[in-house]
Amino acid sequence: MAAVNVSSNASAVFQSISVDLLGLTDKERLLRPLMFDMIDMMKQRIHVEGKASDGGQIGTYNKQYLKLRESKYKRDSSTKIIVSLTGQLEKDWSVIETEKGYGIGFKNVENLEKAINVQNIKGVLIFELSSDELSYANKFIEKQIEKALKGEQ
Fold first, then answer.
1. Predicted model pTM
2. Fewer CB within 10 Å: C terminus or N terminus of the chain?
3. Whether the predicted pLDDT of 5 surpasses 80
4. Extended strands (E) in 12-111
């Protein structure tokens, strides 16, 4: 009778995959880089495109405020609200460590208050992730999982 000997490195492969997947729990590897991408995307949406979290325009500046922006702060004549006058708000965005990982916030409490006030005044969410930003975050995480399953870093 013929015998077949089977050998496998399955346990070593499973061990390697397990180690790679456990690496995804490292907030430094997964969440921190993602938050830097989110800051860039949100700055573009809010401070360049003037869009709220729902994708609509934040609003328009009134004529009196627009004159102040143009004359004192040398801003352009666009009436589109971009939540930026001196540039302090968008420069203060930071990746902030939290108990669960990382998030996005402001280092300066005054800038946090500005962000909250403009949302309240305009009646729209601005400093929350948009659906496009959430989609990007999900795809980023999925890609990291795929890389871990393939043994890539």
1. 0.81
2. N
3. no
4. 93-97, 102-106
